[in-house]
Amino acid sequence: MFVLVSVFFFFQAEDGIRDLVRSRGLGDVYKRQEEDCIAPRYAGANVVVSNKEFVMSDQHLAPFVLTDQDGRDVRIDFSDGATLIYWYPMADTPGCIAQAEGLRDNFEGFEALGCRILGASFDAASRNRAFRDKYRLPFELLSDASHEVAILQGVVTEDASVARRVAFLVDACGRIVHRYDVDDPTMFAERVLDDLEGINMSRHGS
């Protein structure tokens, strides 16, 4: 009798999570993650209404919302495949230029391996737009003006004025495949490509 009651409440809870996810616009994401991922199903707990509900563990990044270089709010949920999120201290400064140019020059390699590139910093959207245009960067640059997502991802402490040079290689299930504390921005792109080539980043899990 106890087992039957427990099973009943388990399925009721599962249905409740699905209803919550659908009502907040992530129904398709939940469905893809449920079908495609071997990792624990965490989408129902990480539905993004605001980044204050963002959840991260040592193994996963949850979906989040930031502003792109054109001033648009963009939701990043990883459901389309592998994603490289790289944090940089300040647009149009020497190390950040070298890192961005390396990613730009190797962009076709990332595309061939199905990996999306996203840069992120505390810079204003307008500064990111100028940086992107000046160096012809073919990927989005995101602005975390409040530092909220960077803090939640463990990139900075609350009193930091710029982001640390940290990056995450994430698969379609939100699993962190590699975390990088970048010492040499000039060789960063090649390092990530080497890792990508050695990993099965397909949406059906490894």
Question: Would you spell out the secondary-structure blueprint of this structure?
Answer:
Elements: H1 2-23, H2 27-36, E1 64-67, E2 73-76, E3 82-87, H3 94-105, H4 107-112, E4 115-121, H5 125-134, E5 140-143, H6 148-152, E6 166-170, E7 176-181, H7 188-197
Brief rundown of the structure:
By secondary structure, the protein is α/β, with parallel strands linked by helices. It has helices spanning 2-23, 27-36, 94-105, 107-112, 125-134, 148-152, 188-197, and strands at 64-67, 73-76, 82-87, 115-121, 140-143, 166-170, 176-181.
Question: What does this protein structure show overall?
Answer:
- A hairpin with a 5-residue loop joins strand 6 (166-170) and strand 7 (176-181).
- The termini are far apart.
- The model is unreliable at 2-36, 38-55 and 201-206 (pLDDT under 50).
- By secondary structure, the chain is of the alpha/beta class.
- The strands form 2 sheets. It has a 5-stranded mixed sheet.
- It is 36% helix and 17% strand.
Q: Please give the count of helices.
A: 7
- Per DSSP, what share of the residues sits in E-state strands of 2 or more residues? 15-25%
Taken in chain order, the helices and strands follow as HHEEEHHEHEHEEH
SS class: alpha/beta
Percentage of residues assigned to helices: 25-40%
Oligomer: single chain
The value of Rg in angstroms is 18 Å
Q: How many angstroms separate the termini?
A: 39 Å
Strand order of the largest sheet: 5-4-3-6-7
What is the count of β-strands? 7
Q: Let me know the average pLDDT.
A: 77
Unreliable sequence segments = 2-36, 38-55, 201-206
- What composes the largest sheet? 5 strands, mixed
Shape: globular
